[in-house]
Amino acid sequence: MYIDSHAHLFKEDFGRDLGEVISRARDAGVERIVVPGTNEKTSREGLELAERYEFIYACVGIHPHEALRVTDKLLAEIESMANHQKVVAIGEIGLDYHYDFSPREQQIAAFNELMALAIRKDLPIVVHTRESLKDTVEIVDQLVLDHPRWKNANSEAKREGAPLRGVFHCFTGSASDALGLFGKGFFVSYPGIVTFKNSPVLAPLTQIGYQHILLETDSPYMAPVPLRGKRNEPANIVHIGKKISEIFNVSESEVANVTTVNARKLFGL
After folding, report:
1. Which residues pair with 126 in a beta bridge?
2. What's the domain range around 92?
3. Strand-strand pairing, 30-36 and 56-60
4. Are 234 and 21 in contact (CB under 8 A)?
5. CA distance 157 to 264
6. Is 133 helix (H, G, I), strand (E, B) or coil?
7. Is pLDDT of 119 > 90?
């Protein structure tokens, strides 16, 4: 059984055949799906899905692309949604210096505000970082230093003494970057990029192992081989799990079990 820890099942991409997509996911062995929001609209759509399907959970947040829109009113709306019993994290949030759709100073300000919300609600975070890992990690490090009790109350959600505080999704950093995050209570997650030929994440992944990772599809993006170029969906997570099992010469069920347990612990599923 798998948990897809990051799938954007929003109306824009799945409005016509969502029921079929979910049925295929269940048939493929996906036991839970976590749907992260990217703005107030998609955060609400994720909540609606979580209310409709028992095995779907939501995260609420503002993507860095939309950081320029963040106001006190919008933050209050996200915080109100975060009170829902099926919201399991604040996300996705972070920094994106590749497109710079929002000014970097605005991205940093929004990231800090949304992490402060996560701390108030004692929720983990789902972090987006693209060409911005150094700044992102520095900000997270400071928050952990300033708020050592963040997630500490949940004694079951710990790894090597560190409370589980979040996941860096679609991780493309180095092995040393990942190991540093592990020590602060974070997982890293991998989508279909691990199946790409000459993928830059393969070398770091082989060094860090699969014990502290999550799996995700990042649907509808990042479809794995042999489905590149097509709309991605949660059922395709099996291709990611199979590839990782081949990398480490272990059974696919071993990879599925470890990553599923990690996701359950992080999100309290």
Report:
1. 91, 167
2. 2-267
3. parallel
4. yes
5. 9
6. helix
7. yes
- Domain count within the chain: 1
pLDDT in tens, 135-178: 999 999 999 999 988 998 655 677 766 799 999 999 999 999 99
Q: Residue-wise over 3-18: b if at least 16 C-beta within 10 A, else e?
A: bbbbbbbbeebbeeeb
Q: Each residue of 195-234: pLDDT tens digit?
A: 999 999 999 999 999 999 999 999 999 999 999 999 999 9
Q: Name the strand (E) or helix (H) holding 269.
A: none
User: By C-alpha distance, which of 93, 89, 43, 40 is closest to 63?
Assistant: 93
105 beta partners: none
SS (H, E, C) 220-241: CCCCCCCCCCCCCCHHHHHHHH
> What is the longest distance spanned by two Cα atoms in the chain?
50
Q: CATH code at 148? A: 3.20.20.140
Alpha-carbon distance of 143 to 255, in angstroms, equals: 31
Packed helices 175-183 and 133-146: angle between N→C axes, nearest 10 degrees: 10
Strands 2-4 and 30-36: parallel
Beta strand ranges found along 8-101 (DSSP E):
30-36, 56-60, 87-96
E-assigned strands of the chain? 2-4, 30-36, 56-60, 87-96, 125-130, 158-159, 162-163, 166-168, 186-190, 213-215
> The pTM is what?
0.96
- Torsion of the alpha carbons at 229, 10, 13 and 223, rounded to the nearest 10: 10
Amino acid at 146: D
Q: Assign residue 170 a region: left if phi > 0, alpha if psi is -120 to 50, beta otherwise?
A: left
